[in-house]
Amino acid sequence: MAGLAAIFGSGAMTNSIREIEGMEVIFIIGSNTKETHPVIANRMIKAYRKGAKIIVADPRKVPMTKFSELFLKMRPGSDVALLNGMARVIVKEGLENKEFISDKTEGYEEWKKAIEEYTPEYVSKLTGIPKDDMIAAARLYGKSRRAGIFYTMGITQHACGTDNVRAVANLATLTGNIGRESTGVNPLRGQNNVQGASDAACLPNVYPGYQRVDQDEVREKFEKAWGVSLSPQCGVTATEMMNAARAGSIKAMYIMGENPVFTDPHMHHTVEALEKLDFLVVQDIFMTETARLADVVLPASCAPEKDGTFSNTERRVQRVRKAVNPPGEARDDLSVIIDLSRRLGYDMGFTTPSEVLEEFGRVWPALSGIDYHRIAKYGLQWPCTSKDHPGTEYLYKDGFPKGKVPFVPVSFRPPVEIADAQYPFVLTTGRNLYQYHSGSMTRRVKQIESHAGDAYVEINPEDAARLKISDHGLVRVRSRRGSVDIKARITTRVSEGVVFIPMHYHEAAANVLTNDALDPVVKIPEFKACAVSVEAV
């Protein structure tokens, strides 16, 4: 991934949550922030009350639109067209940050030619957004030098997700809204320690600290640290693993804290892949849909039952302390991994999580200044390179690690599946406020279930009337991969021709329907757009 997108390839926010309240303009694209990141949404609302202007771009009228200056209701999968169109307006009206472009970027003239075709009229045709609204959004963002962009999986979970992120990066680079307080490109992490897992190399192509496995000097450093020989080959992503298992080239899997039967696209495909394995181990706190297929289930402990650190979306490393003992034979994940490694012939030499953090700092300078003593009360944000370093609130204050930031031209590509006569609707998926991810935790809470325990599909009133669908009536949603029967929720939150299903409900699982087409670079599935039909049952 080239350009600024590569520089923040760790997925972390470039700036801090605190800085949101100092922003003049907040551009939210592909994020239902109020329902999926309510703490950050509250900061945005505080900024709004201080005078900040909020732009929301989304296929649904999400709750943050209540506070928005502009709501850009777009077709699913048209993000690149919108972002290129906004950039073109900024260039045409002379709102770009000329000094930043001259001093800190390269490739500007070639990129500028690439966005020339994205006229307001053309962008409106591709996105469904009125051209005047798109122009107004471009002017609002382009005129500000204290503007932040926020996005989540509405940007990344597309077959063109990498291009979406590049287009976001281009827009921030064009205006110079990076490397200063209350600016930045801020992807919001979807779960409580996704950032920490990524930092610690739960990715197939890097060692801890995003250090490439296929670079000789990096590999040699880790071989010395761990006392073993390491392969120069990159691994495969989680979605690619399922394809390999289905093809028979992967024979065994060890799945920890994940429920891919429910969360991966094309559910039937995932089940078939796992059933073909010779051996499956699942380590989890509950007997999930995936755990039911396992040969061995290792009972794990949850957050209040273990010690360690979590790293949140703003790169802040924080202590987690054991408050209660785990039930039965459950054990904390680290002790299970250490024990299993020893039985397989490699003694890691660790006995406590603090020792792991210390090694982390030895192999990744960005964490070398963080230890348990320093984060006893308050977390620290990496990079934190020495024991007297205060942590880094926002990135790139002193420039960019790869020198000048290149503009990277990207072109609009429609979703892999588009609506047609057989499947005339576009399905998009996501979360709601009350449930969490696959529901393995929240759906065990009676109070939540009594309030938000029913699966539903959102459908526009015009579509419902045409198909004779009643509110709360049962409908069948069908794609090329399967079908679900689910209650209809008639609402103007979605446009005509678009339906929405939250991902949390196993009895009407959205991922029975979703497309397993992958982004060619990072292999993320296209959860956010697939073609479906809808009919009353």
General description of the model:
The chain is α/β, with parallel strands linked by helices and 537 residues long. The chain folds into 3 domains: 4-188, 3-Layer(aba) Sandwich (Dimethylsulfoxide Reductase, domain 2); 194-381, Rossmann fold, CATH 3.40.50; 425-536, Beta Barrel (Barwin-like endoglucanases), CATH 2.40.40. The protein has helices at residues 4-7, 33-36, 38-49, 79-92, 98-104, 108-114, 120-127, 131-143, 153-156, 161-175, 194-199, 216-226, 238-247, 260-263, 267-276, 333-343, 353-363, 446-452, 461-466; strands at 25-29, 53-58, 70-73, 105-106, 147-151, 185-187, 206-207, 211-212, 252-256, 279-284, 296-299, 308-311, 316-320, 380-381, 405-406, 425-430, 456-459, 474-478, 483-490, 498-502, 530-536. Helix 4 (79-92) runs antiparallel to helix 7 (120-127). Residues 1-9 have low confidence and may be disordered.
The tally of helices reads 19
| Helix percentage range | 25-40%
Main sheet: which strands, in order across?
A: 16-20-17-19-18-21
What would the principal axes of the Cα set say about the shape? globular
Q: What does the main sheet amount to? A: 6 strands, mixed, barrel
Note the topology.
Layout: H1 4-7, E1 25-29, H2 33-36, H3 38-49, E2 53-58, E3 70-73, H4 79-92, H5 98-104, E4 105-106, H6 108-114, H7 120-127, H8 131-143, E5 147-151, H9 153-156, H10 161-175, E6 185-187, H11 194-199, E7 206-207, E8 211-212, H12 216-226, H13 238-247, E9 252-256, H14 260-263, H15 267-276, E10 279-284, E11 296-299, E12 308-311, E13 316-320, H16 333-343, H17 353-363, E14 380-381, E15 405-406, E16 425-430, H18 446-452, E17 456-459, H19 461-466, E18 474-478, E19 483-490, E20 498-502, E21 530-536
Parallel strand pairs: 1-2, 1-5, 2-3, 4-15, 5-6, 9-10, 10-11, 16-20, 17-19
Antiparallel strand pairs: 7-8, 12-13, 13-14, 16-21, 17-20, 18-19, 18-21
